[in-house]
């Protein structure tokens, strides 16, 4: 009996190493304690029976196993002294959220047959992460062995290994601009301000970069942005210099998105998490330009939406005609013999259209979040997305009745909305608009008192 217990314990420790790891992404490992003597089929039945219908059809264990999204549930149980202990291993190919929900559901199993039981999650194991760590560890050992085999005095070979291991900043175009080694091969190009920015991004593993080296944008960079199939992102400092380069880039180059360092910081000084966050929260270039024009940094948090200032038009003074005599003496103010007619002051009131409560309710939810909500004619939400993805999301829709978003209403957005039969756009601010369809109404958060 003792020998059997040892074998079961050994099986419990080694369990999970014999399943197919090619399709699994994560492994749920849990331990189970049972107040009684049970067998493996009893535990399997308890898991399937007590989780059935708990999480709906999408996360039902039987359905997940049938479709291959979880592997075979492996269980090892050892009974001793009238109680049983064991380990449960479930290979999973779901995403992290679904895997965590499944692990939590496993802990709800509290009985096995007539016996009380307790399931405790031990860990969620990332199979790919473990593989990566093994690869890195093995690569380091291989490299060490390789370097030890190089005979002393083999300067040429040692120099070649060093060159491969340390990638250098390359040069681009006739101006020899600093660039990352993957600039030409990447579908996405990141434009930064200086050489130090290129080096800092390369340290974070981002090598599809090129620097403009100053506020004057070289012709080679301008031509690069117009290459077919390239997505262009300008990653600029969060200061006045970044604003100036942004304005020039928008005039001489074709920029798709703008990413900004936090206000007052420079790209060359950002840590990797700050770099990734800035690139992930990039916004369309025309909206970034509008924010700069309004005196707002594209990535800076807003205390309130940008306000649009409208100045009253001056009434023109009547000009003296041929029958009017204008006299002036040296040292005296200019006078006219004809008195100007009294001015008529007119108060121009902006008419704000009535906005349905369904749209007003969304404003507090999305404000200062860079999110957009698209509505259909029935006032139901069609889709929600980030402001950076608004153009692409709008393009994918057949018709959109109303757009409510935490961004700047630009001419480009209006032109796109006109093709989707959009009736109303509600935004945080509005840029200079040249034309708009007569059937389209534009309202800002300020107009609505939000």
Question: Nutshell version of this structure?
Answer:
It is built from 15 helices and 21 strands. With 450 residues, it is of the alpha/beta class.
Question: How many helical elements?
Answer: 15
| CATH class annotation of the largest domain | Alpha Beta
Low-confidence stretches: 1-19, 160-165, 296-338, 343-348
- Can you list the strand order of the major beta sheet? 2-3-1-5-4
Number of domains in the coordinates?
A: 3
The major pleated sheet works out as: 5 strands, antiparallel
How many beta strands in the DSSP annotation? 21
The CATH superfamily of the largest domain turns out to be Ribosomal protein S6/Translation elongation factor EF1B
How does CATH name the architecture of the largest domain? 2-Layer Sandwich
Q: What Rg is obtained from the alpha carbons, in whole angstroms?
A: 33 Å
- Helix content class: 25-40%
Structural class by helix and strand composition: alpha/beta
β-strand amount: 15-25%
* CATH fold-level topology of the largest domain: Alpha-Beta Plaits
Distance between the termini: 75 Å
Shape summary? flat
Average pLDDT confidence is: 77
Please give a structural write-up:
The structure is a single chain. The chain is an alpha/beta fold and 450 residues long. The chain folds into three domains: 2-128, Alpha-Beta Plaits (2-Layer Sandwich); 184-293, 3-Layer(aba) Sandwich (Dna Topoisomerase Vi A Subunit, Chain: A, domain 2); 357-444, AICAR transformylase, duplication domain (Cytidine Deaminase, domain 2), CATH 3.40.140.20. Helix content is 32%, strand content 22%. The strands form six sheets. A five-stranded antiparallel β-sheet has the order 2-3-1-5-4. Strands 9-8-10-11-12 form a five-stranded mixed β-sheet, sandwiched between helices. It has a five-stranded mixed β-sheet with strand order 16-15-17-19-21. The longest helix has 23 residues, at 127-149.
